[in-house]
Amino acid sequence: xxxxxxxxxxxxxxxxxxxxxxxxxxxxxxxxxxxxxxxxxxxxxxxxxxxxxxxxxxxxxxxxxxxxxxxxxxxxxxxxxxxxxxxxxxxxxxxxxxxxxxxxxxxxxxxxxxxxxxxxxxxxxxxxxxxxxxxxxxxxxxxxxxxxxxxxxxxxxxxxxxxxxxxxxxxxxxxxxxxxxxxxxxxxxxxxxxxxxxxxxxxxxxxxxxxxxxxxxxxxxxxxxxxxxxxxxxxxxxxxxxxxxxxxxxxxxxxxxxxxxx
Length: 262
Fold this sequence. Notes:
Blueprint: H1 2-31, E1 39-51, E2 56-63, E3 66-71, E4 74-88, E5 96-100, E6 104-111, E7 117-126, E8 139-150, E9 155-169, E10 177-188, E11 193-197, E12 200-204, E13 212-226, E14 229-242, E15 250-260
């Protein structure tokens, strides 16, 4: 009788372990989906190396809460990016400015019951919120944004694109016409681990030369739990194959994301 009970307990433990792994795999895919119906708070730190003639280092920490709201047949995915930046003086080997940059907010409208291709479209607005002229454009900007992805098997593959134009702000500052494309390719492994490549390609259409920044690279991440709190940690490195004259030669990105599944 005792042996039977032990076998039953072992079976239950095995079933719980399988269920936990399945839940972790689903959660990993949701964390990799920019428009998932999942409340999350990513804290992303970007170290940009090799800026200017003195090879200065820029540090940008993005606090990026994502809050979905369901209205009938549609999800409204509210995504805010608040950059806290240490900006070096690239014309000098010393000196830097620290503070808040321009905050960006995007609301994606997405079907509550998506098909094989998950998509979302909506407006993106950049606020004139920088605490120093070196940390922002001095402009209010807005434009369209869109995202599309698919999740076949262990893969999560997609892209996010936006373009914003300035419409108000400091008349003495340069106008803004900025493009962003982030493609992402994730391959999920057992126990919450995954491989990822999600570089951010940008273009400044107002620049006469050196409009583009085109990085390539990737890294690894894992979904895990501390107590009941689900979390997603990742690290990626990118080298810039194309960059402006004073742009970064490579970037190290580290992210810790707090997940709040329902």
